[in-house]
Amino acid sequence: MRTKKLIVFSALLAMLSWSNAFADVEFFLETPIGGRLTVMVNDQSITNATGRYRFFDLDPGRAQVTVYQGRNVMFRQVVMLNPETRTMAILHPQYGFRIQKTIPVHTGEMNRSYQYQPQQEPDQMRQLPDENVNPNANRLMPGSKPTEETMKQNRSQEMPAKSDEVMTADQLEQYLKAIQRTAKEKRLDFMKQTLAKQVFNVQQLTEIIKQFDTPKERLEVAKLGWDSVVDRSNFEIIYDQFSFDSDQKELRAYCEGM
Predict the structure, then answer these.
(1) How many Cβ atoms sit within 10 Å of the Cβ of residue 112?
(2) 18, 31, 206, 213: which is deepest, by most CB within 10 A?
């Protein structure tokens, strides 16, 4: 009888191990930092300048997420990944790393419809301390901000923005809130670091420009936004945001010269 119980128990353990081994585990990271980055999750790595990094077929359990700019480590964090789960996170240049939501992923049931509800960092998905890295691991490491020249080079190598990548209303609202939380004297620097990695339409750009008080700042933001709008044919709306002819002429000269 005891032998039969041991056999059944061993079979259950084997089935559990098999289930975890073939579990669908995914990790998505988005960042508005800008520039060409390499993101590693355990032994998988992705390098691009899109700000979106999507990993599939990961092992459940502890996973180390590392972000490199060139050979320099910008960020390192350990997270817990559950079986049959997609973990979606954001790495913000000012507010650091945050898990936005987790989504159940049901392997073998792709045709079934599910209503997913975002979860606010449940206990099993919260960030875990890593004794081998900086104690402020959820913040960007010093010296990680890309230079303006690097950002220009990376932008020149990127593919044109697609209309289906445009910010949603919720994403725009979150972005505007991030601008508002930034000290006014630092908002233009925040724009230089993040705006090139966003994709939006002209109407959304007008809302972003309104977050700035001085014509000089608004003009600079409009120039930065020219690279990321998907409907440049409507850019006349942006010109109309400036009262002085000199500002309009300067912006036109910039856009026509790009």
Answers:
(1) 7
(2) 31
Q: Which amino acid is at 111?
A: N
Contact 96, 140 (CB under 8 A): yes
Q: How is the beta sheet containing 44-48 ordered, strand by strand?
A: 44-48, 37-41, 61-69, 72-81
Rounded-to-integer distance, Cα 176 and Cα 212, Å: 11
Residues 94 and 189: beta-carbon distance below 8 Å? no
Model's pTM, two decimal places? 0.42
Is the separation of the CB atoms in 85 and 57 below 8 Å? no
Question: Across-strand partners of 85?
Answer: 25, 104
User: 90 is written with which tokens?
Assistant: 């954001």
| Helix, coil or strand: residue 52 | strand
State the residue for tokens 């954001």. Answer: 90
Cβ partners under 8 Å of residue 161, min gap 6? 199, 228, 229, 230
User: For the segment 196-242, what is each residue's pLDDT rounded down to a tens digit?
Assistant: 878 889 999 999 999 999 999 999 999 999 988 888 889 999 999 99
Chain centroid to Cα 226, Å, comes to 21
